[in-house]
Amino acid sequence: MPLTPPDLARPYASPVGKEGDWQLLLRRADALQELARLSEQPESQWPAGTAGRLRAAPAIAGEPPSQRLARWRAVFASELADLQRAVTAASSQGGSTTVSDIDLRSALYLAGRLLATLYGVPIDQVTP
Amino acid sequence: MTGHRSWTAERRARLADPEVARQAAEAHAELDRREEDYRRTLAQLRQARRLTQTQLAGALGVSQAQVSRVENQADLYLSTLRSYVQAMGGELELRAVFPDGQAATITIAELLGHDDAPDGLGGVPEVDVHTAFAFVHRDVGSFDAVERDFHAADAA
Questions:
Q1: Cβ count within 10 A of residue A8
Q2: In this complex, do A86 and B153 lie within 8 Å of one another by their Cβ atoms?
Q3: For residue A105, how many other CB atoms are within 10 A of its CB?
Q4: Same domain, yes or no, for B100 and B135?
Q5: For the domain that residue B100 is a member of, what is the CATH number?
Q6: pLDDT tens per residue, range A13-31
């Protein structure tokens, strides 16, 4: 589902708003890392919530959730690695204060697209 | 006038010598050949295992186009290369060989963090913030195309 990216260059109106997005990025990065880890485990060992969300995804009819997750991880391996590296670099060097507004918005958008693609939902319905 | 020639002028003057020009052409050809050798290596490795790109794609859980992209990519993540080799039933090793004859095998698991690390998410080498986010911007720009690959396999 190709999407027009939001205005990623839009500056944050306040440090509070930026910090909120930074915390959301951390939660999404954690979720992505957990999904990548689960992709190497049998479905029977997945938390009920993860398995349920993947089974409920509308685009995976006919494809077992475990296969869908493994394929997603393989296809988006570079994106997952790049996002993880960016979050790690920023976290170790001061968090949201070291990241420019456009960098933070872009990373948050990329994390959202990765989750939205996996679950087959629009990006504005992605959680976290 | 200082009497010094710019490097560009110097280079032109040197290349005016037919022998120098011939050697330069040979050097360029050698570089091209090495690059082509690299590109062929992964494909030849796969062919030697009597695997098609489609079969390997199935083992990796990606599209055939993705396998083709890996085989033609000039630079790869070690984690990607390891997955590719493992999908063929092999294990990836790196060997450092020095002019004095000493050699050492580099452990991939140590380079990538740990053996069970998921592709690209474990042991990702640290870089400065600016460089790290430059990759994120690149990924945002190319996301639609990669996502099409993902959904193409959905439909297949």
A1: 17
A2: no
A3: 23
A4: no
A5: 1.10.260.40
A6: 999 999 999 999 999 999 9
